[in-house]
Every structure is written in structure tokens, then in C-alpha cells.
Design goal:
about 425 residues; mainly alpha; Growth Hormone, Chain: A; 17 helices; about 70% helix
């Protein structure tokens, strides 16, 4: 018998994840998500290591996060302008070059045992990370059909979570494994960042030879009018889109909570659970693995629960977790600390995507401003560090402020009118 489909029916093939011509480029760009994940979480291991080797207080060591995340605030807009002027590939090469340069500057910083010198190196490294993050999201989005751009970004973000797992594993292995109590030797720090700088420099060299096919920006002003990201209010300027403004605010507080929570995780394990620094760093690997698990679970749940609703649920859950952590009840509080990262998992990409919704030609500029919200991670660790000097558990009351803002964004202020 003949088939039963009518002659006039058109079976449109589903859009591809990417095209074969983009595959090599996609592999390179996706790897960037992993490398900046490694670098950021390794900064949290450095925070604790510098407290011991350079005799810093918790408030002073928070400058590690200030240097890295502060670079995002300084570099976000210049990186976006550089990308628009010279293209995605040049933006990636600039980011990798700054990343490698900052890593190599750890050599003279270690030789002089100068924390301010380390701060300069970390800031330059952070400028590289900020450039890569600003460029990589729209770069991945442009590597194929715009209808599957969200899939590619979520795929790449999974490697960012993998990098966040590898960062404390690598940092803990190199910095804590053979550390002698009371030692001020910085050789392990120097050798670790020589290795990192060398790997990043080789990746930059290899990527310089990759021929990137012609790309179409999925958020350009002249895209198909049936696209999902058409400006819903074309008469408005970027900052007249209320949901975008709230997304910038929510992202600031989101990364603020991340910066403080991650920076003092090892301190909490050491002071409240009695772990050695090496054991606490191993638990941090599981801490980051829960973020990866949360992204997979959150992505699945979004098939049944609206993203903004799930964001509000996860934010409220973290308010509860922070209350339990602050009580220092032993294992129940430590498990709550671990779960904090599970519920944190979906926040960055979900706030990002909700904030860019229906911005149309404003999308690329909006992306730069939301990325600048990462600067929240530069300031909040100082506040948590000041409280942690007295009681590291009580420092975890402070992120409740951040998660309350995120809850309000997910519950009420996400709407694009």
C-alpha cells in the first residue's frame, strides 16, 4: 500500500545542532568554556593557599576574587567593541593572549613573593577570561542554525561546569599535596601557572591556523522576522527594557553570591568540619560536580517548568541552604553547603537568557552589560571575608541578600513586555 501522507504535506527536517563546516571551530570554542571554568575555580584554591603562604587574612585574600571578577567589569565593554570591530576569531585570540600573559606573570610574582604583583597577574588573566566569555557566547550561537543556538550554548556551558570541577582538583593536587605547614615556598604556584600559560599559548597558536567559515550573527538586525528574538518593543532603547535591567542586577548579585560562596568553601571545610586543606579541596571537586548535575537536572525540568519559575524555586532553595549552613550543625550544614552549588547551577545561563529575551538588535550590546554583572564577584568576597574573620559560618548569611534578588527576578521581573 502507498503511504498515507497527503501529497501537499511538507515534512520540514529538524534544524541541525551544527553543520560539518563549523565542527572544528565549535570544538575549539567549546574548549574555551572549560578553560575559563578551570581558571576561575582555581582562584578559590589560590585564595586559601595565599592565606597560609603569604600570611593573609581572609579579607585580604578576597583580593584574588576582586582581581579576577573586577577585570570583567573593566573588560566587558572593550571586549565587545573589539569583537564587533575585528570579529570573533580575533576576539578569541586576544582573550587567549591575555590569559597566557597573566599566567606567565605568576613567575616574577612568585619570585618576589609579592601579593600585589600576584594581583596584577590575576587582573590581566581575568581580562583574558572576560574577553573569552564575552566573545564565546555569541560565537557559539553563530555556529549553525539560530534555532539550535540555545542547545549549543548549553552544551558549551556543560564544559564550563567540567572546568569548574577540574580547577580545584588540579589546584589542590599542585598546591596542597606536598605543602609543609608554615612553608612560604611559592614554587608550586609558579610551576602550575607556567604549565597553564604554556597550554593556553599553544591553543592560541593552533586556533590562529583554524579557518573560520563565514558566519551569520543570529541576533543581527536583519535576521528572519520569524526568529524568536525579535524586539518586542522596537521603539525602546536598551535600558527601557525593564526585564533586561533586572537581569543585569540579578546577574550582579548572582555572581556576588558565587564569588563569596566559592572563595570560603575550603575555609568552611577546614574550620567547621576539621578537614585538612587537601581534603576540603577534594570536597570542592564534588561541590562543582553538583553544579554540573544541577545543570543537567535543571535543563530536564525546564521541559515541564517555565525557566523563570524554576529560577525562583532554586533561588528560594538556596536561601534555605544558607540558613542551614550558617548554623554550623556539622554534616547537615556541610551537605547544605554542597547543595548550594546544585541550586546555583542554572542561575547564570537562565538569567542571561531571560535578560536577552526579545531584545532584537540590542541583543549583542545587552550581552556585554549582563556579562559585566560578573563584577559582583569582585566585591562580595570582601564582605564575606570580613564576617568570616570572626565566624566563617555566619558569613553565609550574606548570600541570602543575593538569592532574594534572584528570587524576585524569577518570580516577577523576568517579563519581556
Amino acid at each position: 500500500m502507498s503511504n498515507h501522507s497527503s501529497a501537499g504535506t511538507v515534512h520540514a527536517s529538524p534544524p541541525k545542532f551544527t553543520d560539518k563546516k563549523y565542527l572544528v571551530t565549535l570544538v575549539f570554542v567549546t574548549s574555551l568554556f572549560m578553560f575559563w571554568g578551570i581558571a576561575i575555580t582555581m582562584g578559590d584554591v589560590l585564595n586559601k593557599h595565599f592565606q597560609k603562604v603569604l600570611s593573609l587574612t581572609k579579607t585580604q585574600s578576597a583580593f584574588v576574587q576582586f582581581a579576577i571578577f573586577g577585570a570583567y567589569f573593566i573588560m566587558g565593554i572593550p571586549a565587545g567593541l573589539f569583537m564587533k570591530r575585528f570579529g570573533y576569531k580575533s576576539g578569541v585570540l586576544l582573550g587567549l593572549s591575555l590569559f597566557a600573559l597573566g599566567s606567565f606573570l605568576f613567575v616574577p610574582a612568585a619570585s618576589t613573593a609579592s601579593f600585589p604583583f600576584f594581583g596584577i597577574a590575576l587582573f590581566i588573566l581575568g581580562c583574558g577570561l572576560a574577553t573569552l566569555e564575552t566573545v564565546a557566547h555569541p560565537f557559539v550561537a553563530s555556529l549553525g542554525d539560530q534555532r539550535t543556538s540555545d542547545q549549543r550554548i548549553n552544551f558549551a556551558q556543560a564544559f564550563n561546569a567540567l572546568g569548574a570541577i577540574l580547577g580545584p582538583a588540579i589546584g589542590g593536587f599542585f598546591l596542597f599535596r606536598d605543602h609543609i605547614e608554615g612553608s612560604t615556598d611559592l614554587t608550586s604556584v609558579r610551576n602550575l601557572y607556567i604549565a597553564i600559560g604554556s597550554v593556553i599559548a599553544l591553543i592560541a597558536l593552533a586556533f590562529s591556523f583554524v579557518k573560520v567559515p563565514a558566519l551569520i550573527d543570529p541576533h543581527a538586525a536583519d535576521v528572519d522576522p520569524d526568529a524568536v528574538n525579535v524586539d518586542s518593543e522596537p521603539g525602546k532603547t536598551l535600558f527601557q527594557h525593564r526585564h533586561f535591567v533586572w537581569a543585569v542586577i540579578a546577574q550582579f548579585f548572582n555572581v556576588a553570591a558565587q564569588g563569596g560562596t566559592w572563595a570560603f568553601f575550603i575555609n568552611y571545610g577546614h574550620e567547621k568540619m576539621g578537614f585538612s586543606d587537601a581534603v576540603a579541596a577534594n570536597y570542592m571537586i564534588g561541590f562543582m560536580a553538583l553544579m554540573l548535575a544541577g545543570r543537567f537536572v535543571g535543563t530536564f525540568l525546564m521541559r515541564f517548568i517555565a525557566p523563570h519559575t524554576l529560577l525562583a524555586i532554586f533561588a528560594f532553595s538556596n536561601i534555605v541552604m544558607c540558613l542551614i549552613i550558617a548554623q554550623a550543625w556539622g554534616w547537615p550544614s556541610f551537605i547544605a553547603l554542597m547543595m548550594l552549588n546544585f541550586f546555583f547551577s542554572i542561575m547564570f545561563p537562565t538569567i542571561f537568557s531571560l535578560g536577552l529575551k526579545n531584545l532584537g538588535p540590542h541583543t549583542q550590546q545587552g550581552s556585554s552589560f549582563i556579562a559585566m554583572g560578573v563584577a559582583g564577584g569582585a566585591f562580595f568576597p570582601f564582605l564575606m571575608g570580613a564576617v568570616a574573620e570572626t565566624n566563617v559560618a555566619h558569613a553565609y548569611y550574606l548570600p541570602i541578600i543575593c538569592y532574594s534578588v534572584i528570587f524576585l527576578f524569577g518570580y516577577k521581573f523576568y517579563k519581556a513586555h
